[in-house]
Amino acid sequence: MKKLKITEMHRLTVDEFKEKAKTPLIVVLDNVRSLHNVGSVFRTADAFLVEAVYLCGITSTPPQAEIHKTALGAENTVTWKYFEDTHQALEELKAQAYTVFAIEQAAGSTLLPELALNPAMKYAVVLGNEVKGVQQSVVDACDGCIEIPQFGTKHSLNVSVTGGIIIWEFFRLMHNS
């Protein structure tokens, strides 16, 4: 096997990306403090044609050098919006008929392998702060929780790793149903 060069990958231009049909998914970052995590979520959102990223609370917004370092320009392709409070983002999403899931370990959560999605619906997922997770009041305002099963000694994953797993699974389920 020969590794492909960038010029052989036939990636979309920024204009082509903007015009491309998007996965009906919005990723909400609830007080994510690390700019590297924010940038990583942007990059994954670009890879899987996520509709938008909502940045809430203390989550930094572009342009920032540290976001760009991991986003590699995806902060310029993926639509984003800032909300002072995550509840404002959820109100907007619900008014636009999105089903909203917190990605959190919670009583009654749906394990990711058991998740079933309707490709005709629109979804949003809330990723939480690196230490505190998704705020309880935000969890309460969501339509449900999704949990990534874990089998080792640690009880959590890095928020950008979680974002990568969740975004990929939503993309896979929405495009293969």
Task: Give a concise summary.
This protein is an alpha/beta fold. It has one domain: SPOUT methyltransferase, trefoil knot domain (Alpha/beta knot, 3-Layer(aba) Sandwich), CATH 3.40.1280.
Question: How would you describe what is shown here?
Answer:
By secondary structure, this protein is an alpha/beta fold. It has a single domain (13-176), classed as 3-Layer(aba) Sandwich (Alpha/beta knot), CATH 3.40.1280. Helices cover 34% and strands 21% of the residues. It contains six helices and seven strands; from the N terminus they run αβαβαβαβββαβα. The protein has helices at 14-19, 35-47, 65-71, 86-95, 136-141, 159-176; strands spanning 23-30, 50-56, 79-83, 98-103, 110-111, 122-127, 144-147. Strands 3-2-1-6-4-7-5 form a seven-stranded parallel beta sheet, with helices on both faces. Helix 2 runs parallel beside helix 3. The longest helix has 18 residues, at 159-176. It is globular. The two termini are 31 Å apart.
